Amino acid sequence: MEMSDWKGAAGVCVNEKNEVLLVLQNISEEDGDKWAVPAGGVEPGESLEESCKREFFEETGLEVTVLEELKVRSGQYENFDVSFNVHYFRVEVTGGELNTHDPFGLILDVAWKPVGELDALDMVYPDDRALIRSMVKN
């Protein structure tokens, strides 16, 4: 039986103040805590857009509308025969209140971070910075 591919969805939200909504994740004792856009795995029967909205709400407490797909991150997990595809979507907040609902306790903080300060943040995926910057309205 071959390993199934892991599919995920990520929501990228940049507000009118050019701040991006990020979550602080406890990666591991060695790696410490790092920032990322809200994201997670697609559950059975969910579309990518539905997954993006659910994960965003679970991790931030905010309800969002998915506007467009931005990119797909593909790769292979080291040490595992599993390939992954994470679809990044541009989202906008439509409701809710900022707080973590994360049932797994992996999210330590949720915050709007100025896009200009991304270089100072320890990011889970450093190349997300370029994608986030590309969304800023000049």
Automatic annotation (TrEMBL):
Keywords: Hydrolase
Name by which UniProt lists this protein: NUDIX hydrolase
Organism: Planococcus chinensis
Location of the Nudix hydrolase domain: 5-136
Molecular function per GO: hydrolase activity
PROSITE patterns hit by this protein: NUDIX (PS51462)
Cofactor dependence: Mg(2+)
A Pfam short name: NUDIX
Superkingdom classification of source: Bacteria
